[in-house]
């Protein structure tokens, strides 16, 4: 009986994903944060001012939960909301100076954890991995 490589690839992908998620969750908890808080701060830190919808699409948090997380971060003074002058239905979210200072301190450490995860993997293998995972993701989305 021949080995089903698609099934094996799927199982390896799912196990690797779980392990990576646990590693990242543990790393983020070292900063006294939940993953959802960190994801929103990270996207605003790197991309700047975004609408609530854009934030929701950029992170893996469903739209029902994102308002709650945004409210918590706003109460902590890490992000702020601003209404769009042209369309009252649109609300922009941006990181505050306090939020930026926090991310300036913790993001370089977080990046080191991610870089250590890929230590020893060639640039070519990383590029291949990116392309393969993009293809899998696009197929799953369609």
From TrEMBL:
Q: Where is the HTH marR-type domain?
A: 6-138
Query: Which species is this record about?
Result: Ornithinibacillus bavariensis
Which residues does UniProt call coiled coil? none
Q: Which InterPro entries match?
A: ArsR-like_HTH (IPR011991), HTH_MarR-typ (IPR000835), MarR/SlyA-like (IPR039422), Tscrpt_reg_MarR-type_CS (IPR023187), WH-like_DNA-bd_sf (IPR036388), WH_DNA-bd_sf (IPR036390)
Q: What is this protein called?
A: MarR family transcriptional regulator
Keywords, ordered alphabetically: DNA-binding, Transcription, Transcription regulation
A Gene Ontology molecular function term for this protein is: DNA-binding transcription factor activity
Superkingdom of the organism of origin: Bacteria
Q: Does the keyword Lipid metabolism apply?
A: no
Could you tell me the Gene Ontology terms of the biological process aspect for this record? Answer: response to stress
């Amino acid at each position: 009986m021949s080995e089903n490589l698609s099934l094996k690839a799927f199982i390896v992908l799912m196990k690797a994903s779980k392990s990576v998620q646990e590693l990242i969750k543990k790393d983020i908890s070292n900063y006294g944060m939940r993953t959802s808080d960190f994801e929103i701060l990270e996207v605003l830190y790197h991309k700047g001012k975004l609408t609530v919808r854009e934030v929701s699409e950029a992170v893996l948090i469903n739209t029902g939960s994102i308002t709650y997380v945004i409210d918590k971060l706003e109460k902590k003074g890490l992000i702020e909301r601003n209404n769009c002058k042209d369309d009252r239905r649109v609300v922009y979210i941006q990181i505050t100076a306090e939020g930026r200072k926090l991310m300036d301190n913790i993001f370089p450490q977080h990046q080191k954890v991610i870089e250590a995860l890929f230590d020893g993997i060639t640039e070519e293998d990383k590029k291949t991995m990116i392309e393969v995972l993009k293809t899998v993701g696009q197929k799953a989305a369609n």
